[in-house]
Amino acid sequence: MRLHHAALAALSTPFTTALNLDVNSTSSLSNASSTIVHGLMSWYQNNASSTPPTAIGTLPAPLYWWEAGAVWGGMLDYWAYTNDTSYNPTMTQALLAQVGPNNDYMPPAYFTSLGNDDQAFWAFAVLTALEYGYLSPLNSTTQWLDLAVAVWNTQVRRWDTTSCGGGLKWQVFQSNAGFNYKNTVSNGAFFQISARLARYTGNQTYVEWAGRSWDWMNATGLFDAQYNVFDGSDDLINCTRVDHTAWTYNPAILMYGSAMMYNYTNGSAVWEERLSGLLGASVRNFFSVENATNVLYEFACEPENTCNNDQFSFKAYMSRWLAKSAIIAPYILPEVRTLLTLSALAAAQSCSGGNDGTTCGQKWYVGGYDGSYGVGQQLSALETVQALLLLGSEQGRLAPRVGSGVVIGQATKTSTFVLQSQTAAPGGGGSGSGTRSADANSANRQRMRSWDAWPVLGLPVMVMVFGAGILGMER
Ligand SMILES: *[C@@H]1O[C@H](CO)[C@@H](O)[C@H](O)[C@H]1NC(C)=O
Ligand SMILES: *[C@@H]1O[C@H](CO)[C@@H](O)[C@H](O)[C@H]1NC(C)=O
Ligand SMILES: *[C@@H]1O[C@H](CO)[C@@H](O)[C@H](O)[C@H]1NC(C)=O
Ligand SMILES: *[C@@H]1O[C@H](CO)[C@@H](O)[C@H](O)[C@H]1NC(C)=O
Ligand SMILES: *[C@@H]1O[C@H](CO)[C@@H](O)[C@H](O)[C@H]1NC(C)=O
Ligand SMILES: *[C@@H]1O[C@H](CO)[C@@H](O)[C@H](O)[C@H]1NC(C)=O
Ligand SMILES: *[C@@H]1O[C@H](CO)[C@@H](O)[C@H](O)[C@H]1NC(C)=O
Ligand SMILES: *[C@@H]1O[C@H](CO)[C@@H](O)[C@H](O)[C@H]1NC(C)=O
Ligand SMILES: *[C@@H]1O[C@H](CO)[C@@H](O)[C@H](O)[C@H]1NC(C)=O
Ligand SMILES: *[C@@H]1O[C@H](CO)[C@@H](O)[C@H](O)[C@H]1NC(C)=O
Ligand SMILES: *[C@@H]1O[C@H](CO)[C@@H](O)[C@H](O)[C@H]1NC(C)=O
Q1: 407 in contact with ligand 10, CB cutoff 6 A
Q2: In angstroms, what is the span from residue 142 Cα to ligand 5's centroid?
Q3: At the top level of CATH, which class does the domain 5-468 belong to?
Q4: Domain range list for the chain
Q5: pLDDT (tens digit, 9 = 90+) per residue, 221-279?
């Protein structure tokens, strides 16, 4: 355990937050989650009777289409973890409003911003509905399975062997900037959807694609041998170099997919090693800010105040998938509980801004509200606080379901998670200065991007890639 003394003090001192969070009390956690959800839903207006049908279920501009899918995923968890059904009609309406003409989350109204990762965040939501037995208006969960499978079917057809030996491109449409970028979030999302469908259905096709997409990401260097996870590569250079920026949501996506495969394979050594490796690297890279050890932070942009709207929400997915991973790979539960408990306390402390006094901020390591607010900030705090309800739920109640005929074995007592030495922390380790990438081997780190890893590119490529990462199109 790496409990920093300040963080330990925070755990044991009955300090007061605007949310009055008692991490050992289900009713307190539930109550706090409900307060944060209220703030989150105050941003949601696109269910008014005047809303055009294509906009129902989406968030106001400049927020992109994908983030609404992410919000409904978090809201489904809120319902499952708290039993609060108040938002169910809103969620159901939203989830079904955006399926598009082919029932595969490809609504034409959003084609200009629709990448594989964007589509995937809606698939994650319906997979959650499926796994927690959330009933569709047809009184079954089959509709959610059909939607997730339809998304998977569109994506498997986009697997592109004309460059880089395979992989999904970031964008679906050539007209969108980023069409040549083959990134971790798109391929990691396809990996996670494959893994979840594999575990739910037991269908070998999904098992094979989970393995194939993982192997391709490994071969392409989207993560290294220490499980530092990078942002992406480019098919114009046949993926010979990698952009090493480290965002929390990339390892998180891989972690839950690995946990799903670990669980589906009844605890195979291969997936255990991968899950442990991803968790260890995440602890080193994203929970090591100075004076706030074990408090989750967005390493690549929070210290410099350069996060965009997409990035404000990334911590939500780290918390979401850390907690869900611990349910299906119980051997990591003690470490995950420590990380999420200290992060939830810090997040709750940040939820003390705005007119309501419970608006959540962005940087949880500053010991209060930092003046920042929005959907991403609210969602990140929500998913971190409510994650403790999942971790505290009684055995089995919130285990993701499986389809008929699929049998999952119980965890063995032999699996253990041992956090490796902190000294190799690439850019983490608490110095608070230096790199914002997770490149353990780079001698010449830069604050934001590891351009040292890139060859001299033609200007259009440079502009595209730079624009993709820096100019607010990270999604
Ligand atoms: C919560 O429970 C844990 C384990 O029983 C204990 O160590 C900790 O002090 C408790 N925290 C609070 C705030 O009561
Ligand atoms: C829930 O929060 C409200 C407002 O902060 C408070 O009045 C109430 O006592 C809380 N209930 C529980 C069970 O913590
Ligand atoms: C829209 O959604 C909000 C948040 O769930 C809810 O409070 C409101 O009643 C909904 N409005 C309509 C017209 O459904
Ligand atoms: C939700 O309901 C279940 C089943 O009744 C119960 O076990 C669980 O404690 C409830 N959760 C909360 C947060 O109240
Ligand atoms: C679903 O179940 C509800 C409540 O049991 C019922 O009112 C409704 O008619 C059912 N809908 C369908 C499509 O069967
Ligand atoms: C592109 O990369 C793939 C995967 O490494 C490799 O198999 C292929 O030969 C490369 N193509 C070219 C033209 O270099
Ligand atoms: C397994 O999944 C694939 C891809 O969706 C599908 O084509 C195939 O029919 C499925 N097999 C079975 C036995 O359901
Ligand atoms: C990545 O690929 C290398 C080379 O094939 C292999 O030795 C290694 O085990 C792979 N690692 C993971 C985590 O898949
Ligand atoms: C950590 O705490 C020390 C001592 O209070 C302080 O000097 C330092 O600036 C803090 N670091 C950060 C990043 O806040
Ligand atoms: C896991 O174990 C169960 C029995 O406990 C067995 O039915 C199932 O086939 C096993 N799954 C795999 C993928 O080996
Ligand atoms: C798989 O997940 C279930 C549900 O949480 C759990 O009971 C089981 O022990 C897990 N299996 C392994 C091998 O960890």
Answers
A1: yes
A2: 15
A3: mainly alpha
A4: 5-468
A5: 999 999 999 999 999 999 999 999 999 999 999 999 999 999 999 999 999 999 999 99
